[in-house]
C-alpha cells in the first residue's frame, strides 16, 4: 500500500495542485480522498482554502469556460461539464455573466474550421452538421442562424 498523505501535509498538497491550475472543490476532494489519512481533515482544509479565496469555484468555472470555449465547445456542453464537476448552478451562471463571450461568432469560426465556407449539399449533410454542433454544446437557435 502506498504511503498516505499525512494530515499536516494535506494543505501543502492542495496548494501544489492549485498552483498548477484552478480546481473545483469536488475535483480536489475526489483527487485526494483515497490518498489522505483523514477525509474530514481534507474537507476541512479545502474549506479553509476556499474561505481564504485560494480555491474558488467561480474562478475555476471562469477558467474552464474560457478553456472549453477556445476548444470549440458551446455553452450547453460547458454547463453540463461544470455540473458533472459539482459546481453549483448559481456559480456557473455567475461565471457565464462575468465572461463576455460571443458564442455565435465562435460557432461561425468552428463551422469554417470544420466545413470551410461551403454550404451543405443536401438535407443529410445539413442534419449531420447540425448534429455535430449540438453535440459540441451549441443551441439550436444559434446553429440555425449560422448554418442557414
How does this model look, in words?
The structure is a single chain. This protein has 148 residues and is mostly helical. It has 3 domains: 7-51; 57-98, Orthogonal Bundle (Arc Repressor Mutant, subunit A), CATH 1.10.10; 103-147. It is 68% helix and 0% strand. The protein has helices at residues 10-20, 25-32, 39-51, 57-70, 75-84, 89-98, 103-115, 123-135, 140-147. α4 crosses α5. It is elongated and about 65 Å long. The model has no long low-confidence stretch (mean pLDDT 93).
Short description:
This protein is mainly alpha-helical and 148 residues long.
Helical percentage:
55-70%
Distance between the termini: 59 Å
What structural class results from the helix and strand content? mainly alpha
List the secondary-structure elements in sequence, H or E: HHHHHHHHH
Cα-atom radius of gyration? 20 Å
Give the integer mean of the pLDDT values.
93
Largest sheet: none
Spatial shape? elongated
The number of domains: 3
The parts where pLDDT drops under 50 for at least 5 residues are none
Total count of strands: 0
| Beta-strand percent range | under 5%
Count every helix, treating DSSP H or I runs of 4 or more residues as helices: 9
Notable traits:
mainly alpha, Arc Repressor Mutant, subunit A, 9 helices, elongated
Write the layout of secondary structure elements.
Elements: H1 10-20, H2 25-32, H3 39-51, H4 57-70, H5 75-84, H6 89-98, H7 103-115, H8 123-135, H9 140-147
Amino acid at each position: 500500500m502506498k504511503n498516505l498523505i499525512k494530515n499536516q501535509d494535506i494543505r501543502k498538497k492542495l496548494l501544489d495542485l492549485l498552483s498548477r491550475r484552478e480546481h473545483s472543490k469536488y475535483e480536489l476532494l475526489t483527487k485526494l480522498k483515497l490518498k489522505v489519512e483523514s477525509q474530514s481533515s481534507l474537507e476541512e482544509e479545502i474549506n479553509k482554502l476556499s474561505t481564504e479565496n485560494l480555491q474558488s469555484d467561480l474562478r475555476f468555472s471562469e477558467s474552464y469556460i474560457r478553456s472549453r470555449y477556445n476548444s470549440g465547445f458551446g455553452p450547453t456542453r460547458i454547463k453540463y461539464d461544470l455540473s458533472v464537476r459539482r459546481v453549483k448552478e448559481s456559480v456557473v451562471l455567475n461565471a457565464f455573466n462575468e465572461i463576455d463571450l460571443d458564442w455565435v461568432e465562435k460557432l461561425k469560426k468552428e463551422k469554417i474550421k470544420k466545413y470551410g465556407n461551403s454550404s451543405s449539399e443536401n438535407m443529410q449533410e445539413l442534419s449531420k452538421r447540425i448534429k455535430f454542433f449540438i453535440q459540441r454544446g451549441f443551441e439550436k437557435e444559434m446553429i440555425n442562424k449560422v448554418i442557414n
